Amino acid sequence: MLDKRGLPRRAAPASCLGFCATALCIAPFIKAECEAKLSWRCSSHRYLFHHRLRLMNEQSIQHHVYNRAAVTYQRISTMKGLLLQHFPKAGSNTPSRTNTDDLIRQSLQQVNMKRPGSILIEQGSNTVDVLDDIADYLAWELSAIEAIHHLIGACVLFPIGGNQTNQTTFSLLQKHGGGSSSSCVEFLALQSPNYPNQLMRSHCGSDGYLLSDPDLFLNCLLPWVPNQAVSEALKEAIRCFRAELYMASVVMLGKASEGVWIELGKSLIDSLPEPKRMKKAKDRSTLDNPIDGFGRKLKLIVNMVETGQTEFSQLIKYAEVSLDEFRLANQWSDLLRDTRNVVHYGNEPHLAHNHENVATLLLSGSKHLKALLALQAAAGGK
Description:
2 domains, three-stranded antiparallel sheet, three-stranded mixed sheet, 60% helix
């Protein structure tokens, strides 16, 4: 026979033929041995799995849940808004009241929290996922109950009826080998303080307590903004605040403040008559230049309004924004700019980045930004 090159094909050595024959003969035995080893390993893993399941007792289950469950101020703040959002409105002849457990359940559904069922421990079951669900549910439930106490303390809600606590007992079913066992696991460390089984809402209007409770007022923080970038920055500032990323929240609020001020300055210049607008061409160019710092632009805009009170008097009157409100907005922006500059290496803020300070900046910023946006709308003829 000829090979691919057209040359006579050489015969295989006897040793090669012997090796091939031997390999063919012992191949079934090698396969059987590999399958046996694989079967032994699988059975060994199964044994270890069942052994670990038997070792997962009530104490280890509690330890796992306690380590995961976390009640944070942000969760309490979120539940405050959800509880009031789902509180039934008062009828013509009936006050606004509701069953507390129903209110908590409706609010928890908004954060995709539902009370898990029993804990099942067996091969192939998602035991860890169930324990995680229990920990998350109990943490959010505790947050809702603490939020109720916060609202009662703020005289937003009033307790009616007797007291009760949350249910922290879950059934436990373990299956191993050919048998099974059932019991209960109680998470006493996650038990709530007593809370009323019925609640009644204050007859005071929402504006009466929103200003005294920053968590509730944050739901109404975002004003109308004509610029998409400013709007997204404000939304991102709120998201960061709710996630307890306070430095990031200040940075995004600073971006929104810059956008509102710069767009206001452009609108003020564009609202001037043609001759005066031409004199402000250099200032308009400065506002359009991204290289120029915001501090310089802010001073330019403030000076333009302060020195041009005659030119902008009708505009300010139409916007219903006083000069004092405008100056307060400038002071707030200076404080925010100083707090935000911590992003630069080596800078230390005069105002610490914590929940109280950032909440104050957001709350006061809502009022100041609305004033600036009203001036911008008036300058644009809206």
